[in-house]
Every structure is written in C-alpha cells, then in structure tokens.
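The freezer alarm interrupted the setup, so I double-checked each line after restarting. Inputs confirmed:
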Amino acid sequence: MGGGGFTMEPDNPVLDDFVLGLAAAREPRILFLPTASGDPAVQIAAFHDRFADRACVATHLSLFRLHGMRRPLREIVLEQDVVYIGGGSMRNLLAIWGAHGLDALLAEAWERGIVLAGLSAGAMCWFEGGITRSSGPPETIAGLGLLPGSLSVHADGEPERLPAYLEAVRTGALPGGWAADDGVGLLFEDTRYMRAVASRPGAGAVRVDALDGELVRARVEPELLGATPAGLPLPGGDVEELRALQRFRRRH
Amino acid sequence: MAQRPPQIVAFGGGGFSMEAGNPLLDDYVLGLAGASRPKVCFLPTASGDADHYIVRFYRRFAAACEASHVSLFRRDRCGQAVEGDIAGHLLAQDLIYVGGGNVVSMLGAWRAHGLDAVLRRAWRKGVVLCGPSAGSLCWFAESLTAFHGEPRRVRGLGLLPFSNCVHYTNEPARRGEYHRFVGDGMRPGFAADDGAALHFRGEELHRAVSSRPHARAYRVEPVDDEVSETPVETEYLGQRVAEPAAA
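Predicted 3D structure, all chains:
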C-alpha cells in the first residue's frame, strides 16, 4: 500500500478488508508488526480496533516490549495467514528485523504462501528498493528484494518523495517500479504484479521505467474498492463473546 | 576542556525509569559529567523511542541540565528531538544516557544509523556513557539478554572487553543462565542487581555503587571447571539508617 489501512484511514476499512480477503482461511490469523515506528501503543491499539470485530484472529508482535515472552519468533510468524507491516522508518525496520533474523523468517513465510501486506515502509520493504525518509531527506534504500523492481509510496501525500524516486530510476540507482498514492494497494502473486486496488476515488499509481536514460511513465488505474463483499455472514453472538474474551486476555 | 578519561556507568537496573523518587544513580552519573549544567542527551532507541519514556527523561533532567534526546524513528518529523548533525551533537555532550528496552533492536538500529561508531568516539573523547538494562548491556563485548524468546548471547559494542548481566539477583533464572553461558565459553564479566552500577574508567572497573543498601555487583568467571561469582565491594550512595531488627 502506498499509504492507507487502519493507521492512515481510520474510517475506511476497505484496504484492510481486501488484505484479509486474500487469506484462504475462514478466520485468518493476522499478525501486525509495528517495528518501523518503534511499536507505539497507539498504532497497536488502532490495529486491534480495526481487526477485533472482523472474522480473524488478530495479534501483534513487538520487538521492543514483549519482555519475558518465550515463544520463538519462527513459531509466531509461520502460524499466521497474514503478516501486516506498519509504516515508519524503513532503515530501522530492516536493521531491527536483520538483528532478530526476521528478514529470513518473512521470506520463508512468503514462500509458504502467507500473505504479506503493509503500508509505506511496510510496503517498500518487499521490493529491491525504495525511497525512505528515515534520516530526514528522501533517499534510496535497499529492501528485502522478494519482489523485483522498486516501490515509492505516498506519491500524492508527500510531494518531495516522487521527484527523488523518478531521479533514482532515471539514473539507475533504483530499478524500475511503481509509485503509489495514499490509498492504493498493489497485489502481487509470487513475484508477478496482478492488479491495483484503491480505497478512494482519484488515487492511482504510476509504473516508472528508464529506457536509455529516459523515463517512461504509465498510469495504473486501480479498481476502486467500495461496497463490502456480499454474502459474508455477520459474526454471531458466540463469536462476539469469543472476541470479547480475546480482547480481555490481550489487555490483562 | 581538560582531557577526560573514557567512562561508562552500567546500571543493573535503576535510574529515573526504574526507581522513581530515588535520584541516587542519576545524581552519581551527573556528578561525573564535570559541569555545573551538564549537557545530557537521552537515547531511547531500545524502547522504540517511547514517548512516555522521553517525557520522564525531561521531567528528571530538564531542570538541572541541558537536556536533549535523539530519536531514530521520527527523523522525518523533527519535533523537539535533535535533527541534522546527530554525530556532532552526541560528541558535544557531557553525558549520554541510554534507556532500557530491547538491546538487540537497539543495536540493530544504531548500526543502521552509524551510531555505534559515534558512541565509540564519544567514549574515547570522555563523554560519560550510562544507562540501565539494555543501556548497560550494549557497552560490553557480549551480554545475556532474556528479553525475547530463550535467553541468548548478544554481541555489543565491545567498548568493555567483558560480558554483562543485568537484573542479576532480581531475576534468579537470569543468574542461572548467565552462569551457564559463562561456563559454556562466554567471556568472564560482571553482573549487577537492580540499583547497582558498575563504573568503568577506560576498560577497568573503577568502583561499584548502588542506590539501594543491599544491591550488589558481582564478578562472574570460570575457575577450573566451575563458574565463580565474587561480590564486588559496592558502595551505597545514600544515607545508611539503622536496620530494623528482624522480626
């Protein structure tokens, strides 16, 4: 996602629902990694607010604050259906993942078919590279490289990022790729780009490539996600009760 | 400025974040800073730059010091944190105070921003380095962290050629694990209780001090086939009061 989801669109759940819908399980397990922002309580609360009442089992993993937790990271990550990465500092995100060995674990999760999602730093991290503002001014940064090409985010929301991206692609500092607006999600299966979706009208993405030092840009028109998918059963009373219990356990 | 020796004060636990109302360890490190209004910079990286931690730091130090902090997570949004020349700022401090949290995450982020090299230079230059918990472990060659998953061995910045264990007798399982690791080849080192601090000048232990009458520091090393634990004489920084008779 170029931006969007529960941290940026508290009143618009369509991108998050789209992500959840990609998991095959009826009640997918979704794990939130807020590493790139330093695991702030506000972001974690927003995640649980968004997913607590949906048909899923939502948990988060803090690499800063789970003192005393004994379960190995591998076990926690690989039992998920969806892993959702928050935005923030991409430099810190990758460095901290590297220090905990989470980069290799996420690659393994991806190979096993676990859906990987995220916004901003949590979107660019899957590509060969992107444009980060981790140190203030926009600059290129290498990602995990699960997906070929590059990604730049907030193309409409942060005007200083896009020129840096275009220049990086033109000079070959970054391979060609996509610049996505806030509210736009790009879906990849395996390493193949499938389609673009959006949570707001007017938001889009651009495919950017360099041919002999010249930029070639092609607008990508996303499908506007709107009405909730029909036919999904509403959670019954017992499911509600289970969720309330889960929420209670999380808090105590 | 006269040449100051490299100094590190490694807390087993304590200071403003863990001992609200007990100023002894923080006053001790301020006393080493050698300025009437010392420049003190807080590094809250190990907590993910947690806001509440930063607020408590300023509450404790802003009145008596030139207090600042460096955030590695919000560098795109300036706020009141130091921006721009972080290295220059850190090298100009009298005291760098490293907060607790996850030492593995902190070291990863530091290395990504080049702070490992900056802190080494600051130390050589005589900027006093201190902190509790993760803010202690990081200075040593290796340490034991039990923060997440199984206890594990972590390579630190290596300014001090020893191993380190914090919250030592406060978390008995940790003490046992530390002995096991030292027995299995982790280098010899020092352990400290909550409220005890190891003060190094250069690479030598200069003294051990405490903010609580019974908190101690220990030397832990292999001797023959055993791991030996020797208490280090630890000076209580507060006023001693008569012990109440045991009931």
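Quick read of the result. Chain B touches chain A at residues 46-51, 72-76, 83-84, 101-102, 104-105, 107-109, 111-113, 146-150 (CB under 8 Å).
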